[in-house]
Amino acid sequence: MGQLERGKAMKISVLKLARNDLKGIYEHLSEFGENPPKKFKESFKNFCDNVSDMPYMFNKYEHIQNYRIAVIVFDYLVFYQVDEKNNTVKIYRILHGKRNAEALIN
Asked: Is 11 helix (H, G, I), strand (E, B) or coil?
C-alpha cells in the first residue's frame, strides 16, 4: 500500500457493471416505496465521499485478491480497487450480501 498525499481526495469511477448494479438496486428498492432507494443513495454517496478521502479504510476482500469491500445500507457490498497511479477508486460491483460475489466478480 502506497502513501497518498494528505488532503488530496481520489476520484471515484463507477464502472459499467457497478452502474448496472445501481440501476437494478434502485428499481428493486423502489418496489418498497420512495424511502428505501433514497436511503440507499445517501448511503452510497457517503461511502463515495469517505473512500475518496480514505481509500484504504475498508478491508481487503479475502476471497478475491486486489479487491476491497465495504458494507453499506440494506446489506449491500461495494467491491472496489484503489488505483494510486491514476488517483482513482474504481468501483467494480455493488451486490447484495446474499449473492455469490465470487462468481459475479471474476
From this structure: strand
Domain boundaries, the chain: 11-105
Distance CA 68, CA 42 (A): 20
**Residue bearing cell 500500500:** 1
Cell of 35: 424511502
* Topology of domain 11-105, CATH: YaeB-like fold (3.30.2310)
Q: What is the mean pLDDT of residues 93-97?
A: 95
The pLDDT tens digits for 1-36 are: 444 545 689 999 999 999 999 999 999 999 999 999
| Grid cell for residue 73 | 445500507
Question: Comparing C-alpha atoms, which of 10, 16, 7, 6 is closest to residue 85?
Answer: 10
All cell numbers assigned to 104? 459475479
Q: In what side-by-side order are the strands of the sheet with 76-83? A: 11-14, 88-96, 76-83, 68-72
Q: Which contiguous run of DSSP H or E holds residue 27?
A: helix 16-30
